[in-house]
Write a structure and sequence with these properties.
Blueprint lengths: L2 E6 L3 H13 L5 E7 L3 E3 L18 E3 L8 E5 L2 E5 L4 E4 L4 E3 L2 E4 L4 E2 L16 E2 L4 H12 L4 E7 L9 H16 L5 E6 L9 H13 L2 E4 L4 E5 L4 E4 L4 E3 L2 E5 L2 E2 L2 H4 L26 E3 L12 H19 L12 E8 L2 E7 L8 E3 L5 E3 L4 H18 L26
Parallel strand pairs: 1-2, 1-9, 2-5, 9-20, 11-18, 12-13, 12-18, 13-14
Antiparallel strand pairs: 3-4, 6-7, 7-8, 10-19, 15-16, 16-17, 21-22, 23-24
Helix pairs in contact: 1-6
Length: 416
């Protein structure tokens, strides 16, 4: 019997899953079909650098189909809905795909239109986002012509892709305007719905300290309700206001629209509901979820997707073989955080463990919760690893899906 595996999404999660599955099954054992609405795979961490002229859009975009191993079918098309009852994917062109296993890897969708006033007059001029290619390119032009005033970096709501990227933008903006010699004319503020700079308290303290050192005002518990772009006003639901001359927004995120049209597949934000340790959908046993498409309480970041990929492929194999699933995924996430001036900080954590000081992945690795040139070089090198190791589904020596404890300064156990 030949298994039919359909993967919805050709981004990081879908590509990793497809390539790893192709290594496990030959073409006689399983057909693997990847569906996406376009053929442009964007290296999303690179979007952060576009507004500052540190990279160009053409340097971070490649065809999706070319990232897939031979023997994987790539279908260009928009998904209309998934019929869980009949194990069928319906495409908007009227065609259908039957599956034995479905992998939802459709990522997160930006929803700027959901915030009143945000996409009105001045959108992509006085209010921009760097979370997609068009926005990052527009923001580059806006920053280039900016010669003084107040810049707000604002997260509308959580969850978002790469939760540290807005902080990185603030840090790089400080560096950029210092390099231009006009930092004293630029007021930077970081406006977040969180009660601190980040979701994890230990990292929040460290990152909040860096904001303070760089003279970036931290405005917390600000729940954005309305944006008056022309008037330069950011208004919260409780009627607080923050003035801006340039707004750098991280808009509301949601799941793919087809999730809403697929009865039982997703939650209120259209993220696909899944078990946080097995990645199996809560809607039906033969459906699995990976990456930003899920509602897992893990960061929506590329490293998370990479770690999830190993567990997901193992569990697809186990499911098709009628075996119990591996419930070992621990929410492992790590990321380099650019802080400007050719330095970066690194954090590593999971569902249960806060970011800790020490080194990753062992005592002789990159420093954690500490700015260094080594971490900056690691951030730059990651782009090569992304295209040549992570997407092809290769294992990275010494880095597995479980969060390592070696090298970390673990807190002493509580005395009872």
């Amino acid at each position: 019997m030949t298994h039919r595996i359909v993967i919805l999404g050709g981004g990081t999660g879908g590509t990793i899953a497809a390539n790893r599955l192709r290594r496990e099954y030959d073409e006689g054992e399983a057909t693997i079909t990847v569906v996406d609405r376009n053929d442009w795979h964007v290296y999303q961490p690179g979007l952060l650098f576009v507004p500052f002229g540190l990279t160009q859009p053409e340097d971070i975009v490649r065809p999706r189909g070319r990232q897939l191993h031979g023997g994987i079918e790539y279908r260009l098309g928009e998904v209309e809905a998934v019929d869980l009852a009949t194990d069928t994917v319906h495409l908007q062109d009227g065609s259908t795909l039957a599956y034995d296993v479905l992998v939802v890897a459709s990522g997160a969708t930006l929803l700027p239109e959901e915030t009143e006033g945000l996409t009105g007059p001045g959108w992509n001029e006085k209010a921009c986002t760097f979370y997609d290619l068009d926005g990052a390119s527009a923001l580059e032009q806006a920053i280039e012509r900016f010669d003084g005033g107040r810049i707000l970096v604002n997260i509308v709501d959580m969850p978002i892709k790469c939760p540290v990227a807005p902080l990185e933008f603030a840090f790089l903006a400080d560096w950029y305007f210092q390099d231009r010699g006009i930092r004293d004319k630029v007021e930077l503020a970081y406006v977040t719905p969180l009660d601190g700079a980040f979701t994890k308290p230990a990292a929040s303290r460290a990152l909040g300290g860096i904001l303070e050192e760089k003279g970036v005002e931290l405005i917390t518990e600000f729940n954005t309700g309305e944006v008056d772009v022309a008037g330069g006003r950011l208004v919260s639901y409780d009627d607080r206001e923050e003035r801006f001359d340039l707004l750098v927004t991280i808009p509301l995120h949601g799941g793919a629209p087809f999730v809403a049209r697929s009865d039982g597949l997703g939650d209120d934000l259209n993220f696909a509901a899944a078990d946080e340790h097995t990645l199996q959908s809560r809607a039906k046993p033969n459906v699995f979820v990976i990456g930003d498409a899920s509602n897992l309480p893990a960061s929506k970041a590329g490293s998370v997707t990479h770690f999830e990929g190993e567990i997901l492929v193992e569990n697809v194999q186990r499911f098709l073989a009628g075996k119990d699933l591996d419930a070992s995924y621990d929410g492992h996430a790590n990321c380099f955080i650019e802080t400007g001036f050719h330095r970066a900080l690194m954090i590593d954590f999971n569902y249960e463990t806060e970011p800790l000081p020490g080194h990753f992945p062992t005592r002789v690795g990159a420093p954690l919760l500490k700015e260094s040139r080594l971490n900056h070089l690691g951030k730059l090198m990651f782009q090569w690893f992304y295209w040549h190791a992570l997407l092809p589904g290769r294992d990275i020596p010494g880095v597995g899906p479980d969060m390592p404890t070696a090298g970390k300064d673990l807190p002493a156990p509580a005395v009872t």
